[in-house]
């Protein structure tokens, strides 16, 4: 059985059949009334037809009666005329009547039999009397006179007259009665036709009223609700999910209205659910974007707390980090706008001692929930109780497999928090865990880079000091000794003196070279005087002209100064070595907590980080200090280095 078929059979069982029953009853009533009307009409028409038939028969019998009477009169006057005058012309109508009488008498008898009753009997008697007069009296008399023209027949004529008078008297009586009967039949027929017309009129009006009532009922019970349902279905289709039908109709239409409302409600619920899921996904995406952009963990904590608070309709959210001494620190918090109370402040520390949601999470590493804060004794638990919090749900924050902290959603509502809230929190705590792990990895990487740069700077400084204190001092001593030796060469040894003098000046040259190398390794002027004099010294020594715009009013951390110095030095060297720049512009500006610099030349451009070790070394240095370096070198348009280094990281 298909799904629809089974649903239909279920509807057949479940749905009230009131409307169908009413429709069936109304239709049956209408059919009954129509049938009754037609039966009555049929009866009236039948009666009308019977009355008309009776009238017709009566008129026929009357007509036959008068024809027969005329024939008997013709017989009698014919025979009388012939007998008195012996004129055979009198026999012409007699002959005609004689020929017609048997047939007419039989017809009269037949019609009499048809109408029956007294009149029928009377018709039979009259018919017999006429036939008898013809056969037993008139024909023998005329025959006798024809045979014996001289015979006296005056008595017979008078007898015949008497007999015909008697028959005519019967005829008169018969026709008088029959006329009265005919008039009564006509009256009946008229009445019957009037009755039939009245019945037809009543039936037509009753049918009209019934059809009208039936149609109005159908309109009210069926058409109107169905039209209303179709309008509301159109509204629903347009997205107005709040439309509801008044559940006032009976039977199946009532069921339809209820089903429509149920459908609208479930559509609305599904729509709400979908919107909630979409909101959750959007919130997760926003947090994930923050994590991917590697913003500070603090920013991620605050964003997660706010997003989760809105999604769960919580009153407070806290993100806490577990500390080693059974303490916890609030690292992110949020409160609903309607709450006058503030959330636990970021940075505040709370004890984990006592039975609490956080200590349960800390102990088990699993989500936990508190349904009643009345007996809370832990630090955050007491805070929650005094703020009117009724229940809370917590989910652990795990960073690379180790339990790091807990995120808690507090609710002040009397209703328990929905099932599965911890699972919904898990997706956010996972993102928090990832953000923390990323931040930790980044911090480790930066520290490692900083250590490498520091180690290399330290090595350079040591070599510079060794050169300064060792090789340079010895060269200076050797130079002095050679100058002394030169002075002590006796005259006459000019060649030797010149050689020694040349060696001494060569030694000075080596010393200068060594000092230059030392400056390159670690500029002593930087340690002594700071960025200002060190950069000026660099500019002085530069082959390419340099324009300086320096705004550094104070000394900075040595690592920062060394980095800035090397950036300027490398930019100048590159401008000299790789391009035919006519000028190098150096702009340095120290703000409260960031140093910004721009080094630009007007060379051919095309510089690439990674082409040698210079620019990439600068990148390492700057990033090790938490800064950024941006190299822009479009072909033919010169090169610029834009650098920003926070001063607080150094
Ligand atoms: N100011 C500049 N103008 C044009 N091209 C440059 C500029 N600075 C560097 N370049 C190009 O970029 C490459 C990379 O520079 P980088 O300083 O990293 O290496 P290098 O100067 O070649 O070698 P190193 O600095 O290790 O002695 C260079 O080889 C050069 O081709
Ligand atoms: Mg270089």
From TrEMBL:
SUPFAM superfamilies membership: ATPase domain of HSP90 chaperone/DNA topoisomerase II/histidine kinase, GAF domain-like, HAMP domain-like
- Catalysed conversion reaction: ATP + protein L-histidine = ADP + protein N-phospho-L-histidine
Q: Name one GO molecular function term.
A: ATP binding
Concerning CDD domains, the annotation shows: HAMP, HATPase_UhpB-NarQ-NarX-like, HK9-like_sensor
- What would be one Gene Ontology cellular-component term for the protein? membrane
Q: Which residues cross the membrane?
A: 23-45, 196-218
Key word rRNA-binding present in the record?
Answer: no
Q: What is its EC number?
A: 2.7.13.3
Localization per Swiss-Prot or TrEMBL:
Membrane
Keywords attached to this entry: ATP-binding, Kinase, Membrane, Nucleotide-binding, Phosphoprotein, Transferase, Transmembrane, Transmembrane helix, Two-component regulatory system
Q: Does the keyword field hold Transcription regulation?
A: no
Residues of the HAMP domain: 220-272
InterPro entries in the cross-refs: CHASE3, GAF, GAF-like_dom_sf, HAMP_dom, HATPase_C_sf, HATPase_dom, Sensor_HK_TwoCompSys, Sig_transdc_His_kin_sub3_dim/P
Q: What class of enzyme is it?
A: transferase
Q: Which PANTHER family match?
A: NITRATE/NITRITE SENSOR PROTEIN NARX-RELATED, NITRATE_NITRITE SENSOR PROTEIN NARQ
Q: What is this protein called?
A: histidine kinase
């Amino acid at each position: 059985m298909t799904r629809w078929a089974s649903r239909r059979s279920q509807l057949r069982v479940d749905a009230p059949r009131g409307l169908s029953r009413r429709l069936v009853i109304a239709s049956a009533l209408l059919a009954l009334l129509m049938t009754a009307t037609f039966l009555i009409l049929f009866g009236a028409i039948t009666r009308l037809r019977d009355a008309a038939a009776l009238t017709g028969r009566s008129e026929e019998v009357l007509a036959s009666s008068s024809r027969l009477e005329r024939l008997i009169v013709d017989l009698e006057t014919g025979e009388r005329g012939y007998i008195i005058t012996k004129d055979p012309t009198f026999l012409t109508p007699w002959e005609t009547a004689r020929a017609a009488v048997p047939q007419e008498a039989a017809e009269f008898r037949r019609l009499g039999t048809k109408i029956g009753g007294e009149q029928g009997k009377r018709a039979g008697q009259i018919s017999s009397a006429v036939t008898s007069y013809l056969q037993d009296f008139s024909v023998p008399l005329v025959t006798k006179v024809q045979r014996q023209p001289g015979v006296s027949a005056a008595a017979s004529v008078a007898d015949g007259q008497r007999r015909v008078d008697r028959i005519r008297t019967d005829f008169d009586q018969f026709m008088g009665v029959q006329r009265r009967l005919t008039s009564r039949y006509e009256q009946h027929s008229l009445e019957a036709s009037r009755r039939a017309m009245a019945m037809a009129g009543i039936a037509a009006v009753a049918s009209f009223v019934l059809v009208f009532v039936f149609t109005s009922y159908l309109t009210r019970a069926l058409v109107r609700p169905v039209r209303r349902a179709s309008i509301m279905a159109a509204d629903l289709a347009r997205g107005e999910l709040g439309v509801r039908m008044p559940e006032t109709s009976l039977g199946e239409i009532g069921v339809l209205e209820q089903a429509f409302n149920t459908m609208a409600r479930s559509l609305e619920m599904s729509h709400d659910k979908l919107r909630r899921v979409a909101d959750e996904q959007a919130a997760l995406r926003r947090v994930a974007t923050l994590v991917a952009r590697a913003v500070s963990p603090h920013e991620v904590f605050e964003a997660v707390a706010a997003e989760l608070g809105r999604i769960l309709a919580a009153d407070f959210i806290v993100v806490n980090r577990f500390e080693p001494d059974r303490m916890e620190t609030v690292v992110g918090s949020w409160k609903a706008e309607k709450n006058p109370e503030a959330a636990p402040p970021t940075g505040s520390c709370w004890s984990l001692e006592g039975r609490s949601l956080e200590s349960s999470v800390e102990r088990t590493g699993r989500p936990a929930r508190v349904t009643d804060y009345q007996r809370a004794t832990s630090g955050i638990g007491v805070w929650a109780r005094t703020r009117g919090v009724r229940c809370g749900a917590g989910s652990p924050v795990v960073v690379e497999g180790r339990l790091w902290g807990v995120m808690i959603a507090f609710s002040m509502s009397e209703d328990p928090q929905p099932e599965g809230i911890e699972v919904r929190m898990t997706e956010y705590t996972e993102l928090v865990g990832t953000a923390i792990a990323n931040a930790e990895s980044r911090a480790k990487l930066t520290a490692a880079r900083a250590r490498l740069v520091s180690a290399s700077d330290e090595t350079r400084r040591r070599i510079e000091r060794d050169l300064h204190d060792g090789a340079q001092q010895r060269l200076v001593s050797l130079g002095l000794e050679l100058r002394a030796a030169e002075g002590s060469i006796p005259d006459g040894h000019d060649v030797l003196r010149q050689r020694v003098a040349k060696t001494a000046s060569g030694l000075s040259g080596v010393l200068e070279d060594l000092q230059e190398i030392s400056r390159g390794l670690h500029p002593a002027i930087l340690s002594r005087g700071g960025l200002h004099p060190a950069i000026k010294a660099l500019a002085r020594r530069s082959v390419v002209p340099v324009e300086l715009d320096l705004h550094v009013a104070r000394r900075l951390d040595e690592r920062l100064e060394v980095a800035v110095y090397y950036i300027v030095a490398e930019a100048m060297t590159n401008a000299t070595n790789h391009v035919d720049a006519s000028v190098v512009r150096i702009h340095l500006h120290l703000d409260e907590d960031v140093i910004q610099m721009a080094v630009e030349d007007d060379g051919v451009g095309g510089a690439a980080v990674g082409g040698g070790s210079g620019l990439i070394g600068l990148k390492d240095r700057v990033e090790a200090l938490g800064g950024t370096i941006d190299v822009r070198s479009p072909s033919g348009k010169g090169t610029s280095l834009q650098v920003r280094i926070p001063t607080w990281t150094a």
